[in-house]
Amino acid sequence: MERVDEVIEMRSDAAKQRADLLQLMLEAASREHIKDKNDDVDEQYIAKKLTYDEVVANVFLFMVAGYETTSTALAYCTYVLANYPEEQHKLQEEIDEYFSQNENETDPDYDVVNRMPYMDMAIKEVLRMHPIALSPVINRECTQETEVCGIKITKGAIIQPDVYSIHFDQELWGPQDVNGFCPERHLTKRHPLAFTAFGVGPRNCVGMRLALVEIKILLTRLLKQYTIVKTDKLEENLNITELTVITPSEIYIKLEKRQQ
Ligand code: HEM
User: Fold this and answer.
1) From ligand 1's centre to the CA of 98, what distance in Å?
2) Which of 157, 161, 146, 241 is nearest to 194 (CA)?
């Protein structure tokens, strides 16, 4: 956060400004005291302005929310693919087919990876089986007393959904066994709240598209050249724990160079 303060200071020099998210936030920020609606009803409050503390806090949140999550998701992808060679092979076929039709392409970009439907389903299936965000991350506060499926929810109650119960619910995700990796199950339209890896509603993950593109580009590059292979240490060292995110301790895989 100190570093962000320094960068903000630097940006006050017009020559050091850039076209990026931080600059957009700085343009929306004000050093004036911003009054909250609850402060004093008689005084005017400045609407739609960020405080400098909010800018710093948002940059910090982006770093925390953006890096560990995406790298952990990639780690789970390698774990699952090592265990499911057939599905990994299908993914490689999709990647190879794209490059055989587009020989001039050397590296995948945004458009390329968005034309790989099996890849999209495979990543979602990895995140269904291995959600990353802890339950408190997707909690919601009830603002008005309500009843859901006969259960009364009082105003102010904090609802903390158990992601595993939802993601492994056979009724929501069947008929294929929910304990198995089956990307094709995502071809079926599911309940809108059945997949909560990125949260739901207007406050869901703002970085979802970026994260998916990052993961797709990396997997495309990796699987174009290598096959992920299981090792003896894979299961014994996995040890999934809850830290900042739900994370494996170690993932031991082997990369075998593919015959081109
Ligand atoms: C696989 C990667 C990721 C996963 C699984 C993930 C998951 C989540 C989840 C579950 C939430 C809570 C949503 C809710 O309450 O409904 C969230 C919020 C958020 N995520 Fe992500 N995220 C990922 C990547 C990213 C990236 C790359 C960024 C930024 C570059 C990011 C930025 C954020 C921010 C700023 C929020 C708070 C949104 C708000 O409160 O309005 N996330 N994320």
Assistant:
1) 30
2) 161
Sign of the dihedral defined by the CA atoms of residues 181, 112, 188, 201, in that order: positive
Nearest residue CA, atom 39 of ligand 1? 203
Q: What is the pLDDT of residue 42?
A: 53
Instruction: Look at residue 34 in the predicted model and tell me its pLDDT.
Output: 56
For the domain bounded by 51-132+172-257, which CATH number is listed? 1.10.630.10
pLDDT, position 94: 95
The ligand 1 site (C-beta within 6 Å) comprises 61-62, 65-66, 69-70, 73, 132-133, 137-138, 197-200, 203-207, 210-211
Residue 71 CA, ligand 1 centroid: distance in Å: 13
The DSSP code for 259 is: P
CA pair distance 74, 154, nearest whole angstrom: 39
How many Å lie between the centroid of ligand 1 and the Cα of residue 124?
15
What confidence score (pLDDT) does residue 110 get? Answer: 82
Do 255 and 221 contact (CB within 8 A), yes or no?
no
C-alpha to C-alpha distance for 216 and 108, rounded to whole angstroms: 9
User: pLDDT value at position 37?
Assistant: 57
Q: What is the pLDDT of residues 176-221, one digit of tens each?
A: 999 999 999 999 999 999 999 999 988 899 999 999 999 999 999 9
Domain extents in the chain: 51-132+172-257
Q: Is 205 annotated as a binding-site member?
A: yes
Instruction: Give the pairing of strands 151-153 and 146-148.
Output: antiparallel
Residue ranges for the chain with pLDDT beneath 70: 31-48
